[in-house]
Design goal:
Number of strands: 13
Number of domains: 2
Order of helices and strands: HHEEEHEEHEHEHHEEHEHEHEHHHEHH
Strand content: 5-15%
Distance between the termini: 34 Å
CATH class of the largest domain: Alpha Beta
Oligomer: single chain
Shape: globular
Pfam family, one: Peripla_BP_2
Family: Belongs to the bacterial solute-binding protein 8 family.
InterPro entries: ABC_Transporter_SBP (IPR050902), ABC_transptr_periplasmic_BD (IPR002491)
Radius of gyration: 20 Å
Protein name: ABC transporter substrate-binding protein
Number of helices: 15
Helix content: 25-40%
Length: about 350
């Protein structure tokens, strides 16, 4: 079982992708630095709190922050590799259509948002909300896409149905397919590929530097010697979905980035997600529980969470140490991920 998202649980056909890799890889790839525990950092708890407060305020706007300066001008044509094994030539980026919310967020952050003509249902940030929707449920409508006359379409390997993608391509529209982000290093890879496909490679490099620098600064606030165990719980109470994250859940990489230990992985859970049992929770012994906000709401908040068998017997349950973040942002895995780390560094290390 993988991270519940667009292609995992029946109730959530596609959506959040799995994240999992050592954060050091991302930092080196993006130009950042620093170790996982923040050792040697001169940051103080007050610094971390200030960053977390600023991050919370920014996330509350549900907006992206484009690169500074003048928007880049695409230099085209370019021919790029598509993850479906094709070579795709892009000659015009005046009407861009991203068929994934995370891809759309990168396009907007690169400074090309005014060229985007439509959105996928997962593009929920403020700048995209007024754009025409080209998906029905989670399936792409080829007719809706073609009605917007895009000059380039950006898709994921799990974007579908395949017949719709074929219909768009057969109409003469270049379709560049990208691998889903499945580990933290994919932030830089994905950004680079999108920027190259749109003819703005320098902007891609600049965005990668910004993400790497922001992530390094966030991690610098980790208190020296603090290594709490954090369990990521994915819950949908109305659907009776109760899962605990383990190795490869995606949340494990965020927990590591924030200078903590993933409790599920540490307890021996070698699958991304495992059904919650009292035994698994007691063995994991998390100091902090991490959840998506809607998931926490679905079980009745913290009080309802403590009624789930095994929760109240953990250190996190006994201390009511529960951290939640908005669903689309927590595992959104894009330009706003450093803001997530800012918040986690402050909240999971709090005494």
């Amino acid at each position: 079982m993988r991270t519940p998202g667009r292609t995992q649980l029946p109730l959530f056909r596609r959506g959040v992708v799995v994240l999992a890799v050592a954060v050091a890889v991302l930092v080196s790839g993006c130009g950042g630095s620093g170790d996982a525990t923040g050792s040697g950092s001169t940051s103080t708890p007050a610094d971390a709190s200030a960053r977390a407060a600023a991050a919370t305020k920014q996330l509350a706007t549900n907006s992206v922050v484009p690169l500074e300066g003048k928007a880049p001008t695409p230099k085209l044509p370019v021919t790029v590799d598509s993850s479906d094994g094709r070579k795709v030539t892009v000659e015009d980026a005046s009407r861009i259509l991203p068929l994934n919310g995370g891809v759309a967020e990168i396009v907007f952050t690169l400074g090309l948002g005014d060229r985007v003509v439509g959105r996928d249902i997962t593009a929920t940030f403020e700048e995209a909300k007024k754009l025409p929707l080209v998906t029905k449920a989670h399936d792409v409508s080829a007719e809706s896409v073609l009605s917007l006359k895009p000059t380039v379409v950006l898709a994921d390997t799990d974007t579908g149905p395949s017949e719709a993608i074929d219909q768009i391509r057969d109409a003469g529209v270049p379709v560049v397919v990208l691998d889903p982000a499945t580990e933290l290093a994919d932030v830089s890879t994905r950004t680079t590929r999108i920027a190259e496909a749109l003819g703005v490679p320098a902007a891609g490099k600049a965005l990668n530097r910004r993400i790497g620098d922001d992530l390094a600064e966030a991690r610098a606030g980790v208190p020296e010697g603090s290594r709490p165990k954090v369990a990521f719980l994915y819950m949908r109470g109305s659907a009776a979905v109760y899962l605990i994250g383990g190795k490869g859940s995606g949340a494990d990489s965020l927990v590591k980035a924030a200078g903590a230990v993933d409790a599920g992985t540490a307890s021996g859970l070698d699958k991304p997600f495992t059904p919650i049992t009292s035994e698994a929770l007691v063995k994991a012994q998390p100091d902090v529980i991490l959840m998506m906000t809607k998931g926490l709401d679905s079980v009745g908040g913290v009080d309802g969470l403590l009624d789930v068998p095994g929760i109240s017997q953990t250190p996190a349950g006994m201390d009511r140490r529960v951290v939640d973040l908005e669903d689309g942002v927590l595992l959104g895995f894009g330009p706003r991920t450093p803001l997530v780390i800012d918040i986690l560094v402050d909240r999971i290390h709090a005494k």
